[in-house]
C-alpha cells in the first residue's frame, strides 16, 4: 500500500482519516431519553453508566477511532466512578479537544440512529444542531438520520436504541509550524 508521499506529511500518513463508531443501550423505565444531546419525550430512557446517550457515544468513538485514539472505554472507562451520571456532552467536548490536539479537524460526520420507538423525525435537526455546536462546526458538516428495523430483533421489539457514526477527519496542522486548529 505504499504510494506517493504527500508534501508536508510523514511517509505513510494520509491527511485524511475515517473513523466508525457504534453504541447501543437498553431502554428502561425511570430515566429520561437523551439522544444526540437532546431530551426526547418517551416513557423510557437509555440505561448506562453515564446518561446513556448512544448517539454521542457513537460520535465519540468515530472521532477517537479516526484520530487513532482508541475508543471511549480507553478515555472514559465505565469502571471509573467520576463518569457515573455524566452528561455525554462532556465526553464529546473532551473528545473534541483530543482530536484538535492531534492536529485534526472534522470534514464531516454521518450518524444513523436505529430505533423502533419513539419516532425521531422531529428530533433529528435539533440533534444535528447540538452535535455541530459541541464540535464547533457548521450544521452542514453533520448529518443525523433515523432508521427502524421494521420490528426485527431486540431493537425492533423496542428493547433498546443503537447509533452508528462515521467521521472524516482532515489533518489540520500546518506542516511547518505544527499548529492545529481550535475545533475538530
| Helix content, binned percent | 25-40%
Q: Describe the main β-sheet briefly.
A: 5 strands, mixed
- Tell me the overall shape: globular
Q: CATH topology, anyone?
A: 60s Ribosomal Protein L30, Chain: A
Number of domains: 1
Could you walk me through the main structural features you see in this protein, from its secondary elements to its overall organization?
- The protein is of the alpha+beta class and 184 residues long.
- The chain has five helices and seven strands.
- The longest helix has 14 residues.
- It has a single domain, classed as 2-Layer Sandwich (60s Ribosomal Protein L30, Chain: A).
Top keywords for this entry?
about 180 residues, alpha+beta, 60s Ribosomal Protein L30, Chain: A, 7 strands, globular, disordered N terminus
What's the helix and strand layout?
Elements: E1 16-29, E2 33-35, E3 38-40, E4 44-46, H1 54-66, H2 72-75, H3 88-101, E5 104-114, H4 124-135, E6 142-147, H5 153-156, E7 160-171
Parallel strand pairs: 5-6
Antiparallel strand pairs: 1-4, 1-7, 2-3, 5-7
Amino acid at each position: 500500500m505504499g504510494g506517493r508521499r504527500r508534501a508536508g506529511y510523514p511517509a505513510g500518513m494520509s491527511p485524511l482519516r475515517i473513523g466508525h463508531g457504534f453504541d447501543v443501550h437498553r431502554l428502561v423505565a425511570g430515566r429520561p431519553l437523551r439522544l444526540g444531546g437532546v431530551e426526547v419525550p418517551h416513557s423510557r430512557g437509555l440505561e448506562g453508566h453515564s446518561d446513556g446517550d448512544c448517539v454521542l457515544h457513537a460520535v465519540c468513538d468515530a472521532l477517537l477511532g479516526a484520530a487513532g485514539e482508541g475508543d471511549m472505554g480507553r478515555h472514559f472507562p465505565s469502571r471509573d466512578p467520576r463518569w457515573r451520571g455524566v452528561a455525554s456532552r462532556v465526553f464529546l467536548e473532551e473528545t473534541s479537544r483530543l482530536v484538535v490536539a492531534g492536529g485534526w479537524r472534522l470534514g464531516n460526520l454521518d450518524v444513523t440512529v436505529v430505533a423502533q420507538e419513539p419516532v425521531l423525525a422531529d428530533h433529528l435537526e435539533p440533534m444535528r444542531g447540538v452535535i455541530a455546536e459541541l464540535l464547533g462546526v457548521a450544521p452542514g458538516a453533520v448529518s443525523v438520520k433515523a432508521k427502524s428495523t421494521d420490528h426485527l430483533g431486540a431493537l425492533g421489539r423496542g428493547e433498546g436504541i443503537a447509533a452508528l457514526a462515521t467521521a472524516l477527519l482532515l489533518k489540520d496542522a500546518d506542516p511547518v509550524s505544527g499548529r492545529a486548529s481550535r475545533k475538530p
